Amino acid sequence: MRILAIDDDPVFLELLAGMLKMIGYGQVTTMASGDEALHELDFSGMLYDCILSDMQMPDMNGAVLTAAIRQRTAYRQTPVLMITAMSGKNTVDDAFAAGATDYITKPLDIIELRARIGMVDRLLAERRRLAEFARLVGQRAAAAEIKAEFETPILIPGFERGIEFLAMENYLLTLGVKRMYSTSAFAIHIKNASIIFNKASGATYVQMLGDVGAQIVDALKTEDVMISYAGSGTFVCMVERDPGQSPDDLEILINIGLMDFETIYAADRLPVPQVRVGEAARSAFLSPTKPTRILERAIQSAITPPEKRTKNGQMVA
Amino acid sequence: MTTVDIWANRRSDHPLARAERLFRSMAAERLDTLSSAWVRLDSGQNIREAMDDIRSVAHKIAGTAASLGHGNLGNQAAEVERLSIEGAGRAALLKALRPLIAGLAELLDD
Fold this sequence. Notes:
Oligomer: heterodimer
Largest sheet of chain A: 6 strands, mixed
Structural class of chain B: mainly alpha
CATH architecture of chain B: Up-down Bundle
Largest interface: A-B, 21 and 28 residues
CATH architecture of the largest domain in chain A: 2-Layer Sandwich
CATH topology of chain B: Four Helix Bundle (Hemerythrin (Met), subunit A)
Strand content of chain B: under 5%
Number of domains of chain A: 2
Shape of chain A: globular
Number of strands of chain B: 0
Shape of chain B: elongated
Number of strands of chain A: 11
Number of domains of chain B: 1
Helix content of chain A: 40-55%
Structural class of chain A: alpha/beta
Strand content of chain A: 15-25%
CATH topology of the largest domain in chain A: Alpha-Beta Plaits
Order of helices and strands of chain A: EHEHEHEHEHEHHEHHEEHHEEH
């Protein structure tokens, strides 16, 4: 795995390179600033598999650097991990919003480093496997492969506001107790996703997901929300405050927006996607659970018709 | 296996040996920066600049020292960084700086 590491402290860069070597990753290039890193990405001719960047740097911080990296087509999906002191964990929010995949805390712990980089390695291996499959058996068979993985969360090409589902889960794990309780998640489920999936090509299906994502962004009317595609035709949104719109209002707005695409879908003999918006899920004060549980509850609410939900959005047993 | 366990043997061909050498070679420069900032802070001159210097150096030491086996130095630097970020008073910062400066000086004596 080719790794690009960025930090303004040369000691930290040596330390990081040394530790990565100890756990089996010897191909590490180091840069002292965001500007140098972007120059390296643009002109070195090297394609890096993973980028590790310090969050707090004097001229260009990690969040700004991440946003700039994501603007480069070749690095749209490359795992970007932020490195931050425990005292700077709150600033990681900006990096996640800019497209970071995960974070590692300073001082470095070799067990944590191995776990985080191992996760990146597995992610890259899975992407390589899919790419190789598509190359070997052609587009038609590749579409069949996508069909087999309807449930897989993907990063939708062209949907700039979307972040990886894994990144959203990682973000939730960074929140302290206080912010955890002020954060809520709600999901938007495409009711006829499986029908469209079965009728359309893989590319058309992904295009449909992009259409729905764009309508969600339009209907929410706020920048202050994280959006991710969780697979199985379901998007998850996360906000720190109350969403400000009722699920019913949001659902109507999105569905009206999608009707504008009716002729396009008709040309492909496909139904227009129709969504259902679930109730917002929050962490309960008296029954603490793992942070990512609110995502599961939000998704469960969206895939469950309202008549089968309880008043608090939970599914009737 | 922790970093400290791994680093215990301190062989010159160890993957962390270069980082350790660089950490020690930069200790003098960092000691100078902190000492100079300490004087400015103590005399009340260019306090903002002194605080920036202190925070920057403390942040760097806090991020690396413990991983290289200098746990105390790392804790002292983290405390100085925390006080700098929280805007603690001069007296508290000067007090926290003393052991950090002493620790860096000891490193140079090794």
